[in-house]
Amino acid sequence: MKSAIAGSDISKAEVLNVSPHGFWLFVAGKEHFLGFDDFPWFRNAPVGQLFNVEFSHGNHLHWPELDVDLDLERIEHPEKFPLVAGA
Fold first, then answer.
1. How many angstroms separate the CA atoms of 31 and 50, rounded?
2. CA–CA separation, 17 and 67 (whole Å)
3. Is 72 exposed, middle or buried, given 0-12, 13-18 or 19+ CB atoms closer than 10 A?
């Protein structure tokens, strides 16, 4: 007996809405707000690139056109990961 061929991953990330302050992302069964103050890489991103997000390994998000990678821990608790500017 052979196992059926595995289908595509049904876990997806979806940008639900964008505002001047940030955007709402639905991933892993939860809705998250990513404010531009905590996630400045997205502030000036074209909407098409913002919506192009990939979700893999159950916790990794990647925006290929923006070269941004985040995990769910960072999204759920941005206060644990303060932004530090280099000199």
1. 16
2. 21
3. middle
**Total residue length of the chain:** 87
Residues 32 and 15: beta-carbon distance below 8 Å: no
pLDDT digits (tens, 9 = 90+) for 25-84: 999 999 999 999 999 999 999 999 999 999 998 899 999 999 999 999 999 999 999 887
Confidence of residue 7 (pLDDT cuts 50, 70, 90): very low
What's the pTM?
0.81
What is the Cα–Cα distance from 15 to 46, expressed in whole angstroms? Answer: 13
Q: Could you tell me the CATH number of the domain that includes residue 28?
A: 3.30.2020
Residue 8 included in any domain: no
The answer to the question of residue 3 being in a domain is: no
